[in-house]
């Protein structure tokens, strides 16, 4: 009897502490909601931590444009922004592609399983691109003419089902962080940039509210530029709404990018967002501010390749891996893009690349995930990452004389080659040299792990 009493009492004590922990988490969440909604501000380091550690996300550009094989939005002729590049599809043809869009092979679970298998930690899906087509059944009215679809959304297509719902539910099931891409630019909305722009401004804010209220937790809001004047938008109110609805969400740096007359001061810092977004190039080493390279797996001579482009070239597995490695050693994240077929299937060669990346990351992911770029700033040879007292050299291209690195204040106490073989690592006051026989070097990335005598705290200049 005494044992049963003690067991019951112990259970009550454990339950009580769990209850207190839950209250603490709830209060912290409510405080965070209050703070970010009443005083919109960029994410804290703690809020950024998961993203900093994640390193690798999957970008998905898709929509009725895939039926044309031309670049999404940019392939439309007679658009109101941009030059002549990419224009291939007459506007009246492009704007009615939705009538044929019926991706019966689309399987959100298959997509998210693939992202997970690839080693991606988050996914960003195109909800609306510059062409204005909504990939969810928005309630916002776009057209009033009887010969046009009122909402211009997936509900107007033969498919009809909510693609964003399928993506969100599958991402949550598979443990992936969820991001929505949303283009404030809208080349088919009749009120876009007309007069004071307030009709369109209300429209797009209402759409963002839909995306942040109907799909559970949304971890990233990925804007893609705006045009016009600051006075035509209510950006501060927009951010208040965003943080009220999703207090832990991260926002990139393009919510107001392109607007004229953005005020200086706190609001300017706010619209800079939580991280930078170099596009179709690997960003420069940047340790102080978070950044994410977005780049296409499809390479096209015209610089596109975001949506399905049958005229493009799929980058090799080696290229994709080295892009990831160069990005992470530069202290950034990689958002690697695929453009699915009109049927809803991802190109087989892109599937194979993603699976190959996942296989590589299952062996060597420890050298990227949860690390920071440095302490040596990379170059043509590759780069380095570190965590606590461990440094990983990622050598992609060996200099003829071997690798020579600047001196570091930390002492190397041991080294090992994670990819096999042996290397000679020597440290003097003049720097660090690394030599390895050519036959033992890995063709993709030779990874050398260095154990330091103390925690790594300083970034070495080249």
Q: Beta-strand level of the residues, as a percent range?
A: 15-25%
The Rg value, from CA coordinates, equals 25 Å
Number of helices: 10
Order of H and E elements: HHEHHEHEHEHEHEEEHEHEEEEEEEE
Describe the global form. globular
Q: Biggest β-sheet, characterized? A: 7 strands, parallel
| Number of DSSP E strands | 17
- Kindly, what is the distance between the CA atoms of the first and last residues, rounded to a whole number of angstroms? 71 Å
The chain-level mean pLDDT equals 93
List keywords for this structure.
alpha/beta, globular, single chain, 7-stranded parallel beta sheet, 5-stranded antiparallel beta sheet, 462 residues
Brief rundown of the structure:
The chain has 462 residues and is α/β, with parallel strands linked by helices. Helix content is 29%, strand content 17%. The protein has 10 helices and 17 strands.
Describe the 3D structure.
The protein is of the alpha/beta class and 462 residues long. It has helices at 2-38, 45-54, 91-94, 108-118, 163-173, 198-213, 235-245, 266-271, 317-329, 348-364, and strands at 56-60, 122-128, 177-182, 220-223, 250-251, 292-296, 298-299, 313-314, 333-338, 372-373, 382-387, 390-395, 403-405, 412-417, 424-428, 431-435, 446-452. A 7-stranded parallel sheet has the order 5-4-3-2-1-9-6, sandwiched between helices. It has a 5-stranded antiparallel sheet with strand order 10-11-12-17-14, covered by helices on one side. The protein has a 3-stranded antiparallel sheet with strand order 13-16-15, with no helix packed on it. The longest helix is centred in the N-terminal third of the chain and has 37 residues, at 2-38.
